[in-house]
Design brief:
Length: 230
Amino acid sequence: MATRVVDTADVSPDATLGEGTSVWHLAQVREGARLGKNCIVGRGAYIGPGVHLGDNCKLQNYALVYEPATLADGVFIGPAAVLTNDTYPRAINPDGSLKSAHDWEPVGVTIETGAAIGARAVCVAPVTIGAWATVAAGAVVTRDVPAHALVAGVPARRIGWVGEAGVRLEPLDDGGPTVSAEAPDGAAPVPAEAPGLDGGPAATPQRWRCPQTGKVYEDFENTIREVAAE
């Protein structure tokens, strides 16, 4: 399948687009960017110089992906989400002179396989978003996000887990930690001792099931892994 680039898109001749990739109106793909197969770049989206996208990635309208970000296969970037690249942003130097485009060191966001970044979320580099994690709309991520974590808020904190389907995992009542009756913003219950992004392991492993796939997971010390269903 051939690539598709509409007339109003701006794709550098030094960028590489994989087979089946589409770039829509007013999007810009800068020099040295490499996009895998079957990617979709929405209206007004921006991909910076040297950014790498795996296969089957989706950048929704007006998403901004600044260099040197790296996205693995199957990553979703929601509308107007931003992946930053400047730890100490300034327009001028201490002496008042204008900073140039080359007197700072860019740092990137890394997003692993299948992860999703919600609309208008901001990932403040340098951070890594783990495989299959979900960043809720409007969240501001300032620390690494574990695989399968569901994070929300400013700053983002873990409020649950998600499976490969993106559906929130449900706690299994198998003698693990008790489950709180309350959760942020009316969300589904989460373990009473669930840690945030800044640590605090649960007392004992908690088991979870994906309501869509039936897969069972176990979490401990702010990580999660798939286990055999009983």
